[in-house]
Amino acid sequence: MVKASSSGLSSDLAGGADTIVARATPPGRGALALIRVSGPRAAACAAQVCPDLSFDIGWRATLTKLRDAGGEPLERAVATAFPGPRSYTGEDMLEVTIHGSPFLVEAVIESFVAAGARPAEAGEFTRRAVANGKLDLVQAEAIRDLVAADTAWQHRNARQQLAGALSAQFERLRAALVTLLAAIEGSLDYEAQGVAVPAGERKARLEECRSQLTALLATAGAGERLREGLRLVILGPPNAGKSTLFNYLCGAERAIVSSHPGTTRDLVEAELNVGGVPIVVQDTAGLRTEGNEIEREAHRRAQAAAAQADLAVVLWAGDAGEETAAPEVPEGLPAIRVRSKTDLVPASIVADGWLGISCHSGEGLEEFRCELLRLVLGEVPDLGGAVAIAARHRRALEVAAAELESCNVESPDTAAENVRWALRAVDELIGEVVTDDVLDEIYSSFCIGK
Amino acid sequence: MSKVDVVVVGAGHAGCEAAASAARMGASVALVTLDRRTVALMPCNPAIGGIGKGHLVAEIDALGGLQGWAADRAGIQFKILNRSRGPAVWGPRAQCDKAVYQRSIRRVVERLRGVTLIEAEVEGLVIEAGRARGVIFAGGVRLGAGAVVLTTGTFLGGLLHTGENQRPGGRLDEQPSTALGQALAAAGLELRRFKTGTPPRLDRTSIDFNRLEEQAGDLAPRPFSWRTRAVRNQCVCWVTRTPPSVQALINDNRHRSPLLSGAIEGIGPRYCPSIEDKVVRFPHHEQHTVFLEPEGLASDSIYVNGLSTSLPADVQEAVVHMVPGLERATFLRHGYAVEYDVVAPLQVGRNLECSLVPGLFLAGQLLGTSGYEEAAGLGLLAGINATGALRGEAPFIPAREDAYLGVLVDDVCGRDHREPYRMFTSRAEHRLVLGVDTARERLMDHGRRLGLVREAAFHVEHERWCRRRGAREALEAGRLTPTVATRKEVFEKAGIELSAPTTWATILRRQDVDAESVAASIENLSDLDAEDRRIVIGSLRYDGYLARQERERERLHRLRHISIPVDFDASTVSGLSREVVEALGRDRPRTLADAERVPGMTPAAMAILAGRLGRRGRAG
User: What is the predicted pLDDT for the residue at A306?
Assistant: First the structure.
């Protein structure tokens, strides 16, 4: 059994960075499995494990024989060489496709390890691609999102991010910050040379940075919904049938259903795909304030869940007496109002604006699905081609925005400080600034020197 | 072979500071110059200081250096640049009488105990067992020394250009050193070619000043040095502008400009371009500002700041005669460019010692800087470290976050700069804590420790900043509650209605309060002198920023304690890009703090390095 070392950063082989090997397909049994090798010894590994393959003929799938450390034939496989830098990682790479038996995968990886590779850590191929400039950090995150995408919406966003749309926006913001800093520094270092950057120009450049930041941050909410899913919460008085509806939506007995009010105490969550949009459905405890301590706590959690939700389904049992008031819909939260258990009561009881359903008879469920789809699609933000940012991006951009908020271009000495910190935050996203960048910018845009 | 502790070759701004600091530390010093009359010569502009440069002068002064003190004696017009900006970026500058400046410095180095001024040409180095052990004069006489400091300015391989004319020279009418450059190359040092230039000098009596705008100094001129009590303004400068017709004239003569025709190969400073450079690079600028600066009270020479040029003499004259006020100006000297050899960066440690030739220290233009102040700063440090090395003491290397001198050595020695290096405040990441006002507080203790500043002088200054700190704390601590009496007091002094408890510090930070005049009436501040009061008020302005810079300094100090072993091979670290590996191999940073400044370094690469070196540190 081959085990990954605890930290690849510390392992080194004489003569350069080491060579890594890993299975790219999911673990378990399958028709095929793909194994990747990357690093300076990839060609040497190929020479030992698949000696018939000519590594220099790259980017061509070739049927070849794999051998183990003792030179015994292991498997017939399709191998493709990717001589660097035209490879995913930018290093020499080899990919072999073999039959998907766990034993065979293990044996082939061991052959590569015997030939000088070591097992890769999670994400190490992509990390190398970033280190070698094949991808930037933001694109690398897109790779992660792309692999994790469950819905068309997530897939489209990740694809655009991978294509560099978001990186380009960050670079544009960084360039605007460098220009702003150059204008501020220009007004500090060159007074004697008769260079004057009008305060109006500094202000305009600051506004440009601020508006770019605002536009980027505006996609943050969408980004979080996109990556984590819209939060749909099921609310209603005890015993309104919330868990029954939850189970219906999930298509499984996920929540415990009973006719006793207050059966559900914890929040129960499930992920759904509604019309290509990821949804996290939350079942909650009934909305009632009396009861024992546990129930009160459950109630408090239900309210907190409602506060964070993007959508709600509010249930009101059809068999509840007329004397019970209709449950309230939290203000500002888009919701479908549903009267449940219509199999127990005449349909006439369903008032205007309420949808009557019965999870037992199936009555009204089709309409409910349509209504849910309409509501979900209505909540999908229209990004107009923009890429929604992720939480890491939002945190960095919020730091930058806060710096620019307290940046007063009338006091260039302190304003420069704010912009430097804003730049540093943006650099955490993509790269690094050295003062030379700013000087270059100054030299290319002003005439300096007396 | 006679012997001294330190021999300094070249008596310009770097050489004089090096000789003085070494002698003050107790070393016997030989200061060698080609010509006694050129000691501390100001061959270009007649001014000391400015933005960034004035900061260096203040730090040199805090370490007992000569430059600020001499500029106070020679100064004929004092001005603080950037006055309308925050105090951290105020740049004191003085127009100087060049002759007085030279005389002041020459007297010091001639009379300083331990310094011998020698008029001779140095043609080679005595190298024994790989170490510099002295110099060889023209004619073959040798002078032994424990350490050699080279501060030869633009003299190595110097080549002067005026139009199509080229002649060897270190400066106008002065011979270059060719043999010494060859000796350096023979010792294995890689040389690089830089270029700089100077404008024409005009006869004061031929200029029509009536139509020109005057520029006067500050009404309350302030000296550079803690050793100077007062200075005064004795002259004005004038401003004029080149007319648009200059552009066409220069364009017509492009082929005769050595700079534009390609005859000059050396790299010049972008921040100090010649007029032909400005016209070509900024064709949309119709006018270029020209400052007329006197070179001395007793001299008729006027320095034409802004018209640096290496155009042929007849074109220079035609250009100058187009400028309002200069129609009938007569030339005392034409402008010219000089190309010279510098020692390529990264061959010298931050203690200014050559890695290839221990015992050999370099400073000034020879290291690729430009400017009197940069030269003096490096010279001072070279003198300190050459003397310290003889005694086996640890080198004195100020950190970037502690001084502009630290930024200077770090940039000049630690980075591959490709043009003459000039100081700017934007180069200092910790600009807000590095104001001129705080230079003594930051550095004078080092000066005292090294023997460059007398104890008594240090204690006078020390008391001053203790008083300032005390006043500052009192302003923050004393609470003003809105009683009848305090409301009245605050209203009378600051003109504001006190409605909630506050402190004087908070009130002085307000935009609508004239802090300077209010401060004069506040109990805790009124017993400080105006200067200290102003510094205290200035520090209030930077409050939040200072706390943050303090945290950043602490972070850097931590990184500075993680050293990178000499045999460290970045190519064995996985996860680093090829670019970073190459840059680390080239720049050879010594600590993680240095590594952070390697071009192309990324936060991710820093994290990987920190992980690797941190682990190694624990294991070892």
Answer: 81
Residues B130-168 have pLDDT tens digits of: 999 999 999 999 999 999 999 999 999 999 999 999 999
The complex scores an ipTM of 0.81
Give yes or no for residue A15 having a pLDDT over 60.
no
Is the Cβ–Cβ distance between A282 and A307 less than 8 Å? Answer: no
Q: For residue A147, what are the contacts with CB-CB under 8 A and spacing of at least 6?
A: none
C-alpha–C-alpha distance, residues A365 and A358, integer Å: 7
Asked if B547 has any chain A CB less than 8 Å from its own CB, the reply is: no
Report A:185-214 residues touching B (Cβ under 8 A): 185, 188-194
Tokens 């540093």 belong to residue: A424
In a domain, B555, yes or no: no
Q: What pLDDT does A1 receive?
A: 33
CATH number of the domain within which B530 lies: 1.10.10.1800
| pLDDT value, residue A162 | 85
Q: Both tokens of residue B577?
A: 């890009």
pLDDT of residue A291: 65
CA distance A357 to chain B (A): 55
The strand pair at B191-198 and B479-480 is best described as unpaired
Query: CB-based contact (8 Å) between B53 and chain A?
Result: no
Rounded distance between C-alpha atoms, residue B427 and residue B409, angstroms = 12
Residue A445 has pLDDT above 50, yes or no: no
My answer on whether A359 and A429 are in the same domain is no
Residues A244, A332, single domain; the answer is: yes
With beta carbons under 8 A apart, name residues in chain B contacting A450: 289-291, 305-306
> What is the domain range of residue B473?
455-545
Q: Per the structure, how many domains does chain A have? A: 3
Angle among Cα B254, B259, B261 to the nearest 5 degrees reads 55
Residues in contact with B426: Cβ distance below 8 Å, sequence separation at least 6, in sequence order? A185, A188, A189, A416, A435, A438, A439
Note whether B442 and B362 are same-domain residues. yes
Rounded to two decimals, what is the model's pTM? Answer: 0.81
B82 near A CB under 8 A: yes
pLDDT at B448 over 80: yes
Q: What are phi and psi of A191, to 5 degrees?
A: -55, -40
Domain holding A169, by residue range, is 165-219+389-445
DSSP state for residue B385 in the 8-state scheme:
H
Is B82 within 8 Å of A191 when comparing Cβ atoms? yes
